[in-house]
């Protein structure tokens, strides 16, 4: 994805942002300076009374939220709470005490930090705005009244109107959880002993042993994966990470090639009823994955119908004699590590090729026919045309999509979870101890860790690692692609 | 030469037919199994020995509620439908708003927003799922459809790429002409750009409507154990619990088939626009 150059973007480097602020303090009159304490004054002084009052109300709201919301939480942020959940007697009645909920303390503190951060941005913006009003007044330029300000929200400032609600949504559902996830990676949140509301959790560097000494270190949760060679998590992590990468590569590559080949086949000369063929393939992806994949899972299970058919036609015996399966009567499609991995890739071809076929059909239509024609005149055969013209064209047009597909496959939860959950049992004790299974991806492992094992801190570490790996990979590959942007070669 | 060409066309058709059959086997199995008389999973025969439509009737029987309480197909369908309608409304609105702002408006921080959203897009929801669950719990929105709608639609603004790619193909001269005619920015959005975006809006509407029908991970986490709040996906998944497999496998197939039919139709409508959006997005960016 290349970002278009914006002509109106007056970028003055990173320091311009603060230079304006400093100018506001240096050259601003008393109203501007007073605005740094009582935020509405700069507006009221320039007759923008309503705006001034509104801004002042925001400031009061902020101060109130700091006193009644942020302060009590910040006070406990260092320890994440000290009062355990308990019953206390009040006269004759028993009631639950006023306990600390570590998670709520963490959540509220992060929200409060976020509010402070946004308020600082607002404050800086406010200082610049009132200073600009002063400059405008000095030069006799017009100053908006409130009606004009409102009007600007559907005119020049329409983007503010458009972006506010979606941004709030993204903050709530995307940004806030990521921040909390990062924080949890540095706590001992998890297991029966450290799950709120009935129990407290705390930062890793505050973890104490039985005799009360502090034994925890900041990176404790990370070192179970990386430096501690004996830990089961370390053992499982490298195996699962390796398989995740292999899987993402295989899944992306097979579906990409398969989709192009299928699209070429349907589009090739002489094929009748192209739309019907396309629709037949598309129907398979129109069925929700949780239906189709669970069905496929039952189709291939050890005592399932496909195994019966295979043993009826003698295939099972043949494979047994070739030493490819351990027992003479069942093919362990979804129970043996190697077979499962193989089957998952195959079934993913079934899931992914129709999608890619759809996209490839669109791209195929745009292939410059002149190049294909001239290559043919030069005596190139179909295979040469495919390798030297069609594939490179696809790689350029589909390059960004391939990268996002790769990242999506790293996090392909549905296929792996729906195919292996409840069926696959691991026989590797160290994997089992880490609550992992051989065909797990990092994301499905993370899900099992939280859902079946409540190891929230360990799961958060995995989440952070996956995110950093995916983000680095994507940024680097986009940077490389933008440097050698070959898109123009085909225009 | 003509004969060789003829043979190669025949071979291609045979190849296509074989591939199509492989791709359709699970779907065919779904259809025939949903008409099977005995409710268990068949291990030896692909086609049922005795056919019956009772599985479909069972799904809508009220008595089943009380016997083992796991077949509330009508309720689940209604729940999913409500969630899907609201998710669709909010998501489409958000996506169109963000796409227009990033495609047509020029403002400070536009590139910053696009870069940030690219990075955020790489963070899959599955990773922060548990935190989202705790967040919803703190807001007292678990086991509620409002919580589900928020989870599905609040972050939808990030999914603007395809629609923005489409909007980028709309010539700026149309917009400039509208400005000269005295049209406000909001007027351009509603009266000029939106009508031109009809195909991609259809794509967006359908794809966001379909989302709640296919997702079961978030739904399972947030809606919990109260089966009358469930969506179809969890309800059907739950029918295949080990202990119920033999009593409900055909019900699962019937339910799955019933929900697949409207979804497939919508999907087929959508795929036309899907290709259009994808290809126009990639060639313009």
Structural class of chain B: mainly alpha
Largest interface (CB within 8 Å) is between:
A-B, 101 and 96 residues
Reading off the top of the CATH hierarchy, the class of the largest domain in chain B is best stated as Mainly Alpha
Rg of chain A, Cα atoms, Å: 31 Å
CATH homology superfamily of the largest domain in chain B = MetI-like
- Any idea what the CATH architecture of the largest domain in chain B is? Orthogonal Bundle
How would you sum up the major sheet of chain B? none
Structural shape of chain A: flat
Roughly what is the average pLDDT of chain A, rounded to an integer?
Answer: 83
Which runs of chain A of at least 5 residues are low in confidence (pLDDT < 50)?
1-12, 486-491
Count of DSSP H/I helices of chain A: 20
Nearest-integer average pLDDT of chain B:
82
**Tally of DSSP β-strands of chain B:** 0
Low-confidence stretches of chain B: 281-285
The tally of domains of chain A stands at 2
Q: Quickly give the structural class of chain A.
A: mainly alpha
Structure description:
The complex is a heterodimer of chains A (491) and B (285). Chain A has 2 domains: 16-184, no CATH class; 232-490, MetI-like fold, CATH 1.10.3720.10. Chain A is built from 20 helices and 2 strands. Chain A has helices at 16-27, 30-35, 41-45, 49-77, 102-138, 146-152, 158-184, 220-226, 232-267, 274-286, 289-299, 305-312, 315-321, 337-365, 369-377, 382-410, 413-420, 429-433, 442-451, 456-483, and strands at 87-90, 93-96. In chain A, strands 1-2 form a two-stranded antiparallel sheet. Chain B has 2 domains: 2-59; 72-284, Orthogonal Bundle (MetI-like fold), CATH 1.10.3720.10. Chain B is 74% helix and 0% strand.
Question: How are the SSEs ordered, and which strands pair?
Answer:
The complex is a heterodimer of chains A (491) and B (285).
Chain A: H1 16-27, H2 30-35, H3 41-45, H4 49-77, E1 87-90, E2 93-96, H5 102-138, H6 146-152, H7 158-184, H8 220-226, H9 232-267, H10 274-286, H11 289-299, H12 305-312, H13 315-321, H14 337-365, H15 369-377, H16 382-410, H17 413-420, H18 429-433, H19 442-451, H20 456-483
Chain B: H1 2-34, H2 54-59, H3 63-68, H4 73-103, H5 110-121, H6 125-138, H7 145-153, H8 161-167, H9 172-180, H10 185-196, H11 198-214, H12 217-223, H13 232-239, H14 245-284
């Amino acid at each position: 994805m290349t970002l278009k150059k914006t002509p109106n973007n007056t970028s003055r480097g990173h320091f311009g942002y603060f230079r304006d602020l400093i100018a506001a303090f240096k050259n601003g009159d008393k109203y501007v300076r007073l605005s740094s304490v009582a935020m509405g004054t700069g507006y009221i002084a320039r007759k923008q009374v309503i705006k001034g009052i509104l801004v002042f109300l925001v400031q009061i709201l902020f101060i109130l939220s700091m006193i009644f919301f942020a302060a009590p939480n910040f006070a406990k942020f260092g320890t994440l709470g000290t009062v355990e959940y308990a019953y206390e007697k009040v006269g004759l009645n028993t009631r639950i005490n006023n306990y600390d909920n570590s998670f709520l303390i963490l959540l509220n503190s992060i929200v409060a930090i976020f509010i402070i951060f946004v308020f600082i941005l607002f404050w800086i913006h406010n200082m610049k705005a009132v200073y600009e009003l002063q400059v405008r007044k000095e030069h006799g330029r017009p100053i908006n009244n409130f009606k004009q300000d409102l009007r600007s929200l559907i005119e020049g400032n329409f983007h503010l109107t458009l972006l506010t609600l979606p941004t709030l949504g993204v903050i709530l559902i995307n940004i806030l959880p990521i921040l909390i996830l990062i924080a949890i990676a540095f706590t001992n949140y998890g297991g029966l002993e450290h799950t709120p509301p009935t129990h407290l959790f705390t930062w890793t560097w505050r973890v104490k042993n039985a005799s009360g000494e502090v034994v925890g270190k900041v990176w404790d949760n990370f070192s179970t994966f990386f430096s501690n060679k004996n830990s089961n998590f370390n053992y499982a992590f490298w195996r699962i990470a390796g398989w995740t990468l292999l899987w993402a590569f295989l899944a992306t590559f097979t579906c990409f090639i398969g989709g192009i080949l299928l699209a070429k086949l349907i589009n090739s000369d002489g094929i009748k009823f192209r739309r019907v063929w396309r629709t037949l393939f598309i129907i398979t992806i129109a069925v929700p994955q949780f239906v189709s994949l669970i069905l496929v899972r039952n189709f291939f299970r050890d005592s399932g119908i496909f195994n019966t058919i295979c043993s009826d036609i003698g295939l099972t015996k043949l494979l047994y004699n070739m030493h490819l399966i351990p027992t003479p009567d069942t093919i362990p499609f979804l129970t043996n590590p190697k077979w499962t991995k193989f089957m998952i890739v195959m079934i993913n071809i079934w899931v992914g090729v129709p999608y890619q076929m759809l996209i490839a059909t669109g791209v195929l239509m745009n292939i410059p026919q002149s190049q294909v024609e001239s290559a043919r005149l030069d005596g190139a055969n179909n295979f040469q045309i495919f390798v030297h013209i069609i594939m490179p064209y696809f790689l350029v047009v589909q390059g960004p999509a391939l990268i996002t597909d790769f990242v999506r496959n790293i996090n392909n939860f549905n296929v792996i979870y729906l195919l292996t959950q409840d069926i696959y049992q691991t026989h590797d004790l160290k994997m089992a101890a880490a609550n992992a299974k051989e065909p797990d991806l990092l994301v499905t492992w993370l899900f099992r860790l939280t859902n079946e094992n409540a190891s929230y801190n360990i799961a958060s570490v995995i989440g952070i690692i996956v995110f950093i790996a995916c983000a680095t990979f994507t940024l680097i590959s986009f940077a490389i692609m933008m440097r050698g942007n070959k898109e123009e070669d085909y225009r | 030469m003509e004969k060789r060409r003829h043979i190669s066309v025949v071979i291609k058709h045979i190849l296509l037919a074989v591939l199509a059959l492989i791709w359709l086997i699970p779907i065919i199995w779904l259809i025939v199994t949903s008409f099977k008389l005995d409710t268990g999973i068949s291990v030896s025969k692909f086609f049922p020995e005795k056919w019956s439509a009772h599985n479909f009737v069972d799904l809508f029987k009220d008595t089943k509620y009380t016997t083992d309480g796991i077949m509330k197909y009508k309720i689940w369908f209604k729940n999913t439908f409500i969630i899907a309608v609201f998710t669709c409304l909010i998501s489409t609105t958000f996506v169109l708003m963000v796409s227009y702002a990033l495609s047509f408006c020029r403002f400070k921080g536009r590139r910053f927003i696009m870069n940030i959203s690219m990075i955020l897009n790489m963070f899959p929801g599955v990773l922060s799922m548990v935190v989202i669950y705790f967040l919803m719990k703190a807001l007292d929105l678990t086991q509620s459809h409002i919580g589900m709608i928020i989870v599905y639609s609040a972050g939808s603004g990030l999914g603007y790429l395809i629609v923005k790619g489409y909007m980028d193909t709309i010539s700026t001269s149309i917009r400039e002409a509208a400005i000269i005619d005295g049209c406000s920015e909001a007027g351009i959005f509603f009266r000029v750009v939106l009508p031109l975006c009809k195909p991609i809006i259809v794509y967006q509407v359908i794809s966001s409507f379909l989302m709640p029908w296919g997702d079961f991970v978030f739904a399972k986490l947030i809606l919990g154990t109260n089966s009358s709040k469930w969506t179809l996906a969890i309800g059907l998944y739950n029918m295949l619990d080990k202990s119920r497999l033999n009593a409900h496998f055909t019900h699962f197939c019937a339910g799955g088939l019933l929900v697949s039919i409207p979804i497939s139709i919508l999907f087929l409508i959508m795929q036309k626009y899907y290709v259009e959006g994808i290809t126009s997005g990639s060639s313009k960016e």
